[in-house]
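Put briefly, the fold is written as integer tokens. The lines below illustrate.
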Amino acid sequence: MSLVAILEQVQTLSVQERKELMKFLVDSFDVPPQQPLLRLADMAGFAAALATGEDAQTYVDGLRDAWERPL
């Protein structure tokens, strides 16, 4: 349905229904704040394996193996 068609339908609503529609539309803009982006310093060590040229799958396999080893 196009915006023009929707607006034409809105014209047929009662005043109370329009108020409810407006409240719904206004409330739809109340979105929770997004999580802040990480600073560059927060990302230290995220991709350490990329610097060594190690294959990504080999790196992940190594991490998983380390998790499974007993302490």
Notes: Residues 3 and 9 are 10 Å apart (CA to CA). The mean pLDDT is 85. Helices lie at 3-10, 15-27, 48-52, 56-68.
